[in-house]
From TrEMBL:
The gene is ccoG. This is Cytochrome c oxidase accessory protein CcoG. Keywords: 4Fe-4S, Electron transport, Iron, Iron-sulfur, Membrane, Metal-binding, Transmembrane, Transmembrane helix, Transport. One of its GO terms (cellular component) is plasma membrane. Coiled coil: none annotated. It holds the Pfam family FixG_C. The chain crosses the membrane at residues 37-55, 80-101, 153-172, 184-202, 329-349. Signal peptide: none annotated. NCBIfam families: ccoG_rdxA_fixG (TIGR02745). Residues 252-280 form the 4Fe-4S ferredoxin-type domain. GO terms for molecular function: 4 iron, 4 sulfur cluster binding; metal ion binding. The keyword Nuclease does not apply.
Length: 460
C-alpha cells in the first residue's frame, strides 16, 4: 500500500498560530468541585485585605515601609531569610503533590486556570455556546457582533481592574487605596501598577489562556521529572476504548468491532488547552477533569460503564498493582515536613527586636575627671512588634561598672532608634586591655522580649 504525502504536509510547524480554542461548557462532579473551590479561592483572595487585626489590616506587605505584616507577626528585611524557607516549603510541597496527584494544582487552584475559566464563563453567557461562538467569529462585523464583543470585553476589563486593585490592596492599606480611588487621588505609581496588573490579567485570562500553560509556565516543562508510573493522572483507557468509532445507541459495539469510545470528540471540545487526551499523556494536560466529566456523560447516555477517561495511573491502566508509597513520594513528603517544622521552630524562637552596636570612631576609650575609663557606644534598636514598647538597657560582664543610658526608652513599632550610651569602669578592676561585655535590651511590658548583644570594653 502506498501513501501519497506531499513534503509540505510533513513539515511540522510547532509555533504556527493555532487560533482561539473555543471551550465547550461542561458540567459534572469534578467540575462541581472545581467551581466551588474556585469561588472559595476568589472570595478568600478578595476578603483577606479587609480582615482587621488589632485595629489594622491583618495582612499587609508594605514594601514602602519594608515590613510584611501577617496578623500578630511583622517581618522585616532582616528576616528575609524566611522568604527562602517559604519558597523551599512551597517547592517541596508542590513536588510532593505532583508526584502523588499529578497536576491537580494546575487544574483546580492555579490562578491562571481559575481566572481563565471565569472569563470563559462570561464569554459563554454573552456570545453563546461553543458552536455559537465559532459561528459568531466567522460572521462579518455587524451591530449584533460588535455589541456582544464590546459587552464581553467591558466585563473582562472590569474583572481585570477589580482583580488588580484587590492585588494592590495587599501592598497598600485597603482602606486608603479604595478611599483614594473613590476621590480620584491615586498617585501615578499606584495608577501604573493597577493598570499594569489589570492588563496582565486581561491578556492572560482573555487571550493567552492555554498558551501560558503550554509555552510560558515552567511547571509544565519539568513536571515529567516528578512523575512516575504510580502518579495519578487523567488518562484514556485505550484497551477499552479502541477501536473507536461512531454508532447508534442500540448498536452492538462488539459486533461492529468497536470499543467503548464513540468518537464524539467532546473530550477535545471541553479541553481548555485544546488537546486530545486519547493521544496519550501530554505535558499540556492540566488534570482539570473536564474531559472526564464529558466522557462519563457520553458513557451514561450509551449505557456503558463510566471511567473510559478517568483519574488513574500508568500501572493501573496496565493492570498492575499501584505502589502507594514510592521512595520519591516519601522523599518529597519528608523534606516538606522537615522544612516546615524547622520554619515553625525558627518563627517561634524569633525575637521581635533588632539591635546593632556601633563604637565611637573617634576614640576607643577615654578617662573622665574621676579617673574612670569610659567607652561610648551607639545602640540602634528596632522595635519589630506592632505595639509601642518601653525598653530597659543594662550591661554585664564588668563588676561595678556604671552605665549611662535612658530609662524605659519608648520606641514605636517599626521605628529604629539610635541610643548613645556610655559605660564607665575603674581601670584597676580590669585585668585585660579588652574585656568582653554584653548589653541586655529588654521590653518592660513584655519581659520575654529580650536581646543580648556582645561587644568589648577597652582600656589603656
Amino acid at each position: 500500500m502506498k501513501f501519497n504525502i506531499n513534503e509540505e504536509q510533513m513539515i511540522i510547524k510547532p509555533y504556527e498560530h493555532e487560533g482561539n480554542i473555543q471551550v465547550r461548557e461542561q458540567k459534572g462532579r469534578f467540575q462541581d468541585i472545581r467551581r466551588k473551590l474556585s469561588w472559595l479561592l476568589m472570595l478568600t483572595f478578595i476578603a483577606i485585605p479587609f480582615i482587621q487585626y488589632n485595629g489594622q489590616q491583618a495582612v499587609l506587605l508594605d514594601i514602602g515601609q519594608q515590613q510584611f505584616r501577617i496578623f500578630s507577626v511583622t517581618f522585616w528585611p532582616q528576616d528575609f531569610i524566611l522568604l527562602a524557607g517559604i519558597f523551599m516549603v512551597a517547592a517541596f510541597a508542590l513536588f510532593f503533590v505532583t508526584a502523588w496527584l499529578g497536576r491537580v494544582w494546575c487544574g483546580y487552584v492555579c490562578p491562571q486556570t481559575v481566572w481563565t475559566l471565569a472569563y470563559i464563563w462570561v464569554e459563554h453567557r454573552i456570545e453563546g455556546n461553543r458552536n455559537q461562538r465559532i459561528a459568531l467569529d466567522k460572521k462579518p462585523w455587524s451591530r449584533d457582533k460588535i455589541q456582544k464583543k464590546a459587552t464581553k470585553h467591558a466585563i473582562w476589563l472590569f474583572m481585570s481592574l477589580f482583580t488588580s486593585t484587590t492585588f494592590i490592596s495587599y501592598f497598600i492599606p485597603a482602606a486608603d487605596l479604595y478611599a483614594e480611588m473613590m476621590t480620584f487621588q491615586w498617585s501615578g505609581l499606584i495608577t501604573f501598577w493597577v493598570l499594569f496588573f489589570a492588563l496582565c490579567t486581561y491578556g492572560n485570562a482573555g487571550f493567552l489562556r492555554e498558551k501560558v500553560c503550554t509555552h510560558m509556565c515552567p511547571y509544565a516543562r519539568f513536571q515529567s521529572a516528578m512523575f512516575d508510573k504510580d502518579t495519578l493522572l487523567v488518562a484514556y483507557d485505550s484497551q477499552r476504548g479502541e477501536r473507536r468509532g461512531p454508532r447508534r445507541r442500540k448498536d452492538d459495539a462488539k459486533q461492529l468491532g468497536l470499543g467503548d469510545c464513540v468518537d464524539c470528540n467532546l473530550c477535545v471540545e471541553v479541553c481548555p488547552v485544546g488537546i486530545d487526551i486519547r493521544n496519550g499523556m501530554q505535558y499540556e494536560c492540566i488534570n482539570c477533569a473536564l474531559c472526564v466529566d464529558a466522557c462519563d456523560q457520553t458513557m451514561d447516555r450509551f449505557g456503558y460503564d463510566k471511567g473510559l477517561i478517568r483519574y488513574t495511573s500508568e500501572h493501573e491502566l496496565l493492570g498492575k498493582p499501584k505502589n502507594k508509597m514510592s521512595l520519591k513520594l516519601i522523599g518529597y513528603g519528608s523534606f516538606t515536613l522537615l522544612i516546615t517544622v524547622l520554619m515553625a521552630v525558627w518563627i517561634n524562637a524569633r525575637i521581635p527586636l533588632e539591635t546593632s552596636i556601633l563604637r565611637d570612631r573617634n576614640a576607643l576609650y577615654r578617662v573622665n575627671y574621676e579617673g574612670l575609663v569610659e567607652n561610648t557606644y551607639t545602640l540602634k534598636i528596632l522595635n519589630k512588634t506592632q505595639q509601642p514598647l518601653h525598653y530597659d538597657i543594662s550591661a554585664k560582664g564588668i563588676d561595678a561598672a556604671s552605665l549611662s543610658a535612658p530609662e524605659k526608652l519608648l520606641i514605636f513599632p517599626g521605628v529604629m532608634q539610635e541610643v548613645p550610651v556610655t559605660l564607665s569602669a575603674d581601670g584597676y578592676d580590669l585585668d585585660k586591655k579588652m574585656t568582653k561585655i554584653q548589653f541586655v535590651i529588654q521590653a518592660v511590658e513584655q519581659p520575654e522580649i529580650q536581646l543580648i548583644k556582645d561587644t568589648v570594653f577597652f582600656k589603656d
